[in-house]
Amino acid sequence: MTRILFITSNRLGDAVLSTGLLGHLIERHPDARVTVVCGPLPAPLFRAVPGLERLIPLAKQSYARHWLRLWLACVGVRWDLVVDLRNSAVGRLVFAGQRAFHSKAARPMHKVEEIGAVLGLSPPPGPRLWIDARAEAEADALLPSGVPPFLAIGPTANWLSKEWPVDRFARLAQRLTGPDGPLPGARVAVLAAGPERERARPLLESLGDQAIDLTGRTDPLAAAACLRRAALYVGNDSGLMHIAAAAGVPTVGLFGPGFPEIYGPWGRHAQAVTGSIPRDELLRRVAVDANAPGLMDGVSEDRVAEAAHLLLDGAHKT
């Protein structure tokens, strides 16, 4: 039996992007007993990992006491392999046969490639999700019975400056689900984390009875179970965008001041759409105010609609 300690990110998006490397380890060591360490928010994504022995949600504490707590939880085990994507002291101070640590890439590359490089994997394994019966049951309860594949929209993000205007999301939804759109008559599921729910409300109100309200109602794994029943996902640069892409949904990610070459949605059926405002200008404005308004105004509805059409056409051909 192989014991693996896998330490990944506190952040939802980065944790999703690390799942491909974890999946590779599980395939390489089918007898493995795996301990996963991550932040409390992404923790549900790992609860159904094959061979999971322990899941440790690592909530930050003052004076770095969370790292001491983690070391105490792990030091008594003789690990065959430690993969530490946090490059922490814990990964160095437990007993291990082999160790692998994340280090910042010498050249710009996508985060999935950077994570794959920890074990020298090129091409890197893409993100994947292990969706359990509990998540599927929650999706069954949240989605209307018998609803056909729908349009999913993620209108919020962790920064206000990364949010495309809600009225554009509303017009895009009408365009894609109208009689001449690629998803005529489709319902529109709106997803947002609990703290962001109020910012999604104007979109829900504009959609009326067409909307499926999934805001603030699901943990990340249940959100994935809902999303993989969608025909298309369109959303801002966020952890939810990465969940959609990892779930295999055609995914359009919208980027203003972000870095799509590093954090764009990953996969054959995923595409990042950027705007017309130069990124240097956007980053200058973000440095003054992280929640500066108008930074997504350069992302045109036409470009987003075009990306959606291309992804849907590609998905139908595969």
TrEMBL record:
Annotated TM spans: none
The keyword DNA repair appears for this protein: no
GO MF annotations in UniProt: ADP-heptose-lipopolysaccharide heptosyltransferase activity
Keywords attached to this entry: Glycosyltransferase, Transferase
Lineage: superkingdom: Bacteria
GO CC, any one term: cytosol
SUPFAM superfamilies assigned to the protein according to its UniProt record, in alphabetical order: UDP-Glycosyltransferase/glycogen phosphorylase (SSF53756)
UniProt GO BP: lipopolysaccharide core region biosynthetic process
Pfam families assigned to the protein according to its UniProt record, in alphabetical order: Glyco_transf_9
Protein name (database record): Glycosyltransferase family 9 protein
